[in-house]
Structure formats: structure tokens, C-alpha cells
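Handout, page 2. Input:
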Amino acid sequence: MRRSDGFTLIELTATIIVLLIGVMGVGIIYFNTVGHSAEPYLRQQAKATIKQIMTDIMSKKFDNDTPDGGGVVPLSEVNIGREKNDGSFTQDFDDVDDFSGLNCDTGVNTCFPDVPSGFHVKINVSYADLQNGGVVKAKNPNNFKLITITLYSKALKHEEYTVEAVKGNY
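Output:
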């Protein structure tokens, strides 16, 4: 009778292949997890950035003709769009509709320099009306303006965030 000590070359090779496949599987899972570990932070940063932009816009006057300290502007004077003296820097805009049509990258001198870079923002301001407990776009000037901000994250390539707010004429 022959005594067998150890493994044959075929058994050893098969064991190495099985272990290698297992280690590769664990490695793929690990690197995929590590590669996406920053995404929750980036999403939180995007949400904080769009909130900061909306807060900045909502702190502005309803219309260019709104008196300092507030007050109602006659609807015949209400408009949407940038006035000639507003310039092209977002920090110089003085009313909410100056932001209408803005399409720029954040964190640069002309586009919200006080918020983080790495985002692209599009802003639309339109007349709004309150109907049946909701907000609808209106064609004619009235006492409400709907501000819509869409923020695109450059790091999260296919994600966009949209928020809307209504500014009243008061």
C-alpha cells in the first residue's frame, strides 16, 4: 500500500484558482464601494449649495421698483429681466428676476462666488399665480414670481437637483 502525503499538483492548482476567484470578487466589491463612498457627501454638498443659492435669491427684492424695506409695486411696473444697471455679477443683482436666464458654473466671480465650485446652475424666473392650493405659471405680471433653480453636479454626472420658491409682492 502506498502512502500519500500532501496534495497533487492538480489539487493545488484548483485550490489556488478557487481562492483567486474569491479574492478577486471581494476586491471588486471593495473597490466599487470605495469608488462610490464620496457620493453621499457630494449629494449633501449639492443640496446645501442649492439651498444657499435659493436663500441668496430670496433675500433680494421682489422687483427692481420695490422700495428699500419692502412695499407693493404696482403691477404695471412689474417685469422680469435684468436692468441695464445690474451688471453681470450675481452678487450685484438686486431683485429676484435679475437671475432669470442665468446659466453658469458656480464658484466663479460672475456666478455665486461664495458657494462651492463644481456645480452648474440654471435659473428661471416667471410670473406665478396661486390656484387651488398650488402654484401655476402665469403669462401676465401679478403679485407672485416663481423661481426655479436646477443644479447639476459635475462630480455626480447624471444627477440634477431642482427647487422652486415663490416670492410675493409685499
